[in-house]
Design brief:
By secondary structure, the chain is an alpha/beta fold. Helices cover 52% and strands 10% of the residues. It is built from 16 helices and ten strands.
């Protein structure tokens, strides 16, 4: 699978189309599973829009740093598997591989271990190098986490580390002959310090001046905080249209674009605003994982009604056990429940149901879960159902809500035609 144009060319053509009055917002899709990759590729083929796949270091990373929870992918296997699925379905559109939240301390374990700064920076760099070697198109430079820093990481530190990382990556890219890389900077988290419009613009202005002085590329996107915040299975933030509009205008003033994170579960009226206010792109991931888990649980309901108990997959209980014991729910819970023990959570049936839906996708590569899914598929196929097709359709429908609201139908053809 080889793109006809680079991601930078794609966004340049997008901007040209915007100037012509064609407004749309790109979506970055988190690669949560094999099913999600297939669903996203099938939908991108059917609706003719550029597919942007965004993977965090926890999801996809080098084996030497622990690999990823998504299918056990490192960067190379992620690209190869996606390319294989694309070949299987005859996808020949635009598909871009992107690093989401790359950099130092971006793996949960690195923060928990409080790695020394030099070691964390070098690991972040080596992970980026593996991204580029595997054929990634865009790298999110995010040095805004630091377990040694109390409170907000100073903006000057974020700026210095951002420039340092880009400079090192570009030097290595030229040395090894890698293809052109696009960059994304900033964070949606308030700990990154990019909160007010003035601070946001000051960061971009200073970054642009330093990058130009050093002959380094300006980032394709800057991440801004527009009020989105994902917790549990909802977006608990307060979306702020005036702020989003202001931040979008600021990024365009400096020749870059606004990227929004944590777009999961936003309402359709809010999504429909995005192309209107000129928001360039938005990332969505946990929502699609939840949709896949709930599709499996819906199939389990049919299995429980029509298959003898001793022949059932027991997928509901197995998913619940692994989801709760995996403890990834702690980052999504609100209030004190994020601090509860596994034993305390297991005593509350409603909490267990919520965590199963919210975190089931983290467990899909666990051996016991994989075996249960296989049994579920076999049982429901005997009932005359098409379980794999059903799960993929549910994921496609979820992604399609964003694609439609963002005005993305037919944009690949228009972008390629306008690319220079």
């Amino acid at each position: 699978m080889k793109n006809k144009i680079t991601m930078t060319q794609m966004m340049a053509a997008t901007n040209e189309l915007h100037e012509q009055g064609k407004h749309f917002t790109h979506i970055g899709v988190g690669p949560m599973s094999h099913n999600l990759l297939r669903a996203a590729l099938e939908l991108a083929k059917e609706k003719d829009f550029p597919l942007i796949l965004i993977a965090s270091r926890n999801q996809v990373d080098s084996d030497r740093f622990g690999g990823g929870y998504v299918c056990g992918f490192d960067q190379k296997r992620f690209v190869e598997t996606t390319s294989r699925i694309a070949d299987e379905i005859g996808f020949d559109g635009l598909c871009y591989f992107c690093r989401d939240h790359g950099g130092p301390w971006q793996r949960d374990k690195e923060r928990a271990d409080k790695l020394p700064t030099d070691e964390a920076m070098e690991i972040g760099l080596q992970s980026y190098f593996d991204d580029a070697e595997a054929g990634f198109d865009l790298l999110h430079i995010d040095p805004t986490k630091d377990p040694h820093c109390t409170g907000v990481v100073p903006l000057s530190t974020v700026l210095d580390r951002t420039v340092y990382l880009i400079e090192r990556i570009e030097a290595e890219r030229k040395k090894r002959g890698w293809k052109e890389l696009a960059y994304e900077v900033g964070t949606e988290e308030t700990m990154g310090g990019l909160i007010s419009a003035d601070a946001f613009e000051g960061f971009i202005k200073e970054l642009k001046a330093i990058l130009e002085e050093k002959g380094l590329p300006m980032p394709l996107f800057v991440v801004g905080q527009t009020g989105t915040l994902t917790r549990l299975t909802t977006n608990v933030g307060q979306y702020d249209t005036p702020t989003a509009t202001t931040l979008s205008d600021i990024t365009h003033k400096y020749g870059t674009g606004l990227k929004e994170h944590n777009g999961d579960y936003l309402s359709n009226p809010i999504l429909l605003e995005h192309p209107v206010i000129g928001l360039d792109a938005m990332n969505v991931a946990p929502e699609f994982g939840l949709v896949e888990t709930e599709a499996l649980l819906e199939l389990a309901t049919a299995e429980e009604k029509f298959v003898a108990k001793e022949e059932q997959s027991n997928i509901r209980a197995i998913l619940a056990k692994h989801a709760v014991e995996g403890q990834r729910w702690r980052k999504w819970m609100v209030g004190d429940k994020g601090k509860y023990s596994v034993e305390e959570i297991m005593k509350d049936e409603e909490d267990v149901k919520l965590i199963t839906s919210m975190c089931g996708h983290y467990t899909l590569e666990d051996a016991e879960v994989k075996a249960a899914v296989q049994k579920l598929n076999e049982n429901t196929e005997k009932l005359g159902l098409s379980p794999k097709t059903y799960v993929i359709k549910k994921i496609k429908d979820s992604i399609d809500r964003y694609v439609y609201c963002f005005g993305l139908y037919g944009t690949t053809s228009e972008i390629v035609k306008n690319a220079k």
